[in-house]
Design a protein that fits this description.
Length: 215
């Protein structure tokens, strides 16, 4: 399958068969997230593969009881790792790129380059931005392997709402997350129960794509 075909045919799948996903395919999907691009290669993320039934049930509760979270063969929990911006961690990434100490200090002093200087809210925004690319990479990789998926963004977190702090707490404990970890998205993975053709409903192309300037 070409990338063009993958992009055209991939669609959100919410009804899964009981078929398990081979471990080597799960590994490839996670690797796609691992290799995704990020701001100065900051990689402020964690990806947690969940296959355990009781954990999937709990994650379903976190997503307002969406049934496909529970019924998927696997769920990748995509976490914004705000700690990934800490000077020691981000500095280490820059060092690996061959940057000298003075250059690193300079980067860490410029708000445009170092979102930690912009406050909690904008730090989270920038971190979400990074996680999003990795999510796309994983979905597309999954589809190439014949694995269907759905992004689950309607979840309780500090970027949306927290109506059930007890559930959030239980999820954090179950996944061993720390206070700098924010679950942004989950990706449900599995094989569609009954194959349906993609139904790509989109706005009109010329309402969103422009050449040189907006019409
Ligand atoms: C950020 C984001 C959050 C989403 N959250 C959910 C969700 O919580 N539950 C769900 O069933 N689908 C969710 N979706 C899937 C969208 O509804 C779906 O991608 C969109 O309708 C386009 O359909 P397609 O993926 O089949 O092309 C989400 C998609 C994105 C990108």
């Amino acid at each position: 399958m070409t990338l063009e075909e993958i992009i055209k045919n991939r669609h959100s799948v919410r009804q899964y068969s009981d078929k398990k996903i081979p471990p080597e395919d799960l590994k490839k999907i996670l690797n796609a997230g691992y290799l995704a691009p990020s701001w100065m290669n900051s990689q402020p993320w964690k990806f947690i593969l969940v296959q355990n039934d009781s954990a999937k049930e709990l994650l379903s509760k976190l997503s307002n009881n969406q049934p496909h979270v529970k019924n998927a063969a696997a769920v990748v929990v995509c976490v914004a790792d705000k700690k990934g911006w800490d000077k020691e961690i981000f500095g280490e990434v820059l060092k690996k790129r061959g940057m000298e100490e003075a250059g690193i200090e300079r980067i860490l002093s410029i708000p445009m380059f170092y979102p930690k200087l912009l406050g909690e809210e904008r730090l989270l925004l920038r971190t979400v931005e990074q996680v999003t690319y990795a999510v796309s990479y994983m979905m597309l990789q999954a589809y190439e392997l014949g694995v269907d998926s759905c992004i689950i963004g309607a979840i309780e977190n500090e970027a949306t709402v927290i109506n059930h702090p007890d559930i959030v707490k239980e999820v954090n404990e179950t996944l061993n997350l720390n206070q700098d970890d924010v679950i942004i998205t989950m990706i449900t993975l599995g094989y569609e129960k009954e194959k349906t053709p993609p139904n790509k409903q989109r706005k009109d192309y010329d309402k969103v794509v422009f050449f040189e300037k907006v019409n």
